[in-house]
Amino acid sequence: MNQPEPYQSEIATRIDRIESRFAMQDLVSDYCHGFDKRDWDRFLAIWWPEAVWDIGPPFGKFEAHAGIEHVVKDILWPAWLASSHFTTNLVLTFDGADKASGVSDVDCIGTTADGQAQTVSASYFDRFERRKGIWKIAHRKVTMYHFSPLPGVTLSPPE
Amino acid sequence: MNQPEPYQSEIATRIDRIESRFAMQDLVSDYCHGFDKRDWDRFLAIWWPEAVWDIGPPFGKFEAHAGIEHVVKDILWPAWLASSHFTTNLVLTFDGADKASGVSDVDCIGTTADGQAQTVSASYFDRFERRKGIWKIAHRKVTMYHFSPLPGVTLSPPE
Amino acid sequence: MNQPEPYQSEIATRIDRIESRFAMQDLVSDYCHGFDKRDWDRFLAIWWPEAVWDIGPPFGKFEAHAGIEHVVKDILWPAWLASSHFTTNLVLTFDGADKASGVSDVDCIGTTADGQAQTVSASYFDRFERRKGIWKIAHRKVTMYHFSPLPGVTLSPPE
Question: For chain A, what is the HEC assignment?
Fold first, then answer.
């Protein structure tokens, strides 16, 4: 027999919700790929033009593509010789079809410009928005639990 | 032409399976958010009332909400000044529509009450059950590979 | 009213794409479970028979099940007393229904055969293929950012 209209509509909504989840997971992952692999286009692509990135102390809050470009290219990339960010525990909460919030936890290891190995633990609190079918980050707040040296550790690639 | 009944039924089953996966991923993530962010309601919500949490040595096995509340509030939260659990590699295996098992690997860094930075690696072996449309953990077994100090490391937030 | 054929076809394609994502996530996870838990069958099952595993320096490139078995059983498992690999940030890109590429970042901690605790950071660049409904890895390239000792650290399980 025919399936009534609402059935197809419900199935389409549920699939759209699932695909949106993957799109948002990719934003969270591409933040790391863009930043650590120093791929500027990949990094910029995750943010809406007016997005706010609230990094917290000691860095501050940065707005819009110009502000985000400034903090990455003038402050953060020079501050790190190399970094590896590993994001985990992403939990998404929808607010209708085109808005969602997310929380994830990041484990980071790397070497700052002074040659010191560092360990960082933080959480990312995100607000995502979909516009014309595309999801991006509208707001990211970073809460850092630690940013601390690993004395005596030198991080280098294998020969 | 009409799609026969079995088609819609198969599609609905496959979507239900996918949504169940996300529900279980969220349980695994919320264990970390609840524990590390010290959000008791979030932590408790992942467990069925009679759930068993087998933490292994040196902690032991704890049963039901009362046992789980005891170990967290009386033993584990006092044992840690701060902790960051990063869960990865979750693989789920279904046993029908309402039961599943999962294995995941957790990387943890934190500071115990004595002020010592620690590194922990473990796996979580979970049995999940769905009741009245809600997935929760019925049994979690922890296998710890290491729980060891990081000498000379002090974990603290940035200024 | 009847849904035209293309509708069901589109829904089925979208669900197939989602299920494929989970299958590939499981391959990336099972690489870790197989290797770290020393489960050879689980490890082997992720690779197509002629798959290439390009580990890079100092290990090299290994081909097909025989080459992969050799490097794991004769080189890597003897080289590590214990290892914990945590994969994160998996981003998948499809090339039609039966091929995809993936990038993920792995954080690894463990102890080499000399008793030294090590920290490793790397990325995995994968080519996945689906044959007769089953996804496996056809090619994995490893790029290592660091493979370095943690001086003074001894990783051991709790008593």
Answer: CCCCHHHHHHHHHHHHHHHHHHHHHHHHHHHHHHHHCCCHHHHHCCEEEEEEEEEECCCEEEEHHHHHHHHHHHHHHHHEEEEEEEEEEEEEEECCCCEEEEEEEEEEEEEECCCCEEEEEEEEEEEEEEECCEEEEEEEEEEEEEEEECCCCCCCCCC
Distance from CA of A16 to the nearest CA of B (A): 11
pLDDT single digits (tens) B10-48:
999 999 999 999 999 999 999 999 999 999 999 999 999
Say if pTM beats, i.e. exceeds, 0.80.
yes
Interface confidence (ipTM) of the complex: 0.96
Q: Which of B8, B29, B107 sits opposite A107 (nearest CB)?
A: B107
pLDDT at residue number A9: 85
| pLDDT bucket at A77, cuts 50 / 70 / 90 | very high
Q: Determine whether domain C5-149 maps to CATH 2.30.30.100.
A: no
Task: Return the CA Rg of chain C.
Answer: 18
Distance, in Å, from the CA atom of A8 to the CA atom of A3, rounded to the nearest integer, reads 7
**Do the Cβ atoms of C87 and B90 come within 8 Å?**
no
Chains meeting A at 3+ CB pairs closer than 8 A? B, C
β-pair partners for C103: C91, C125
Q: Is the pLDDT of residue A74 over 70?
A: yes
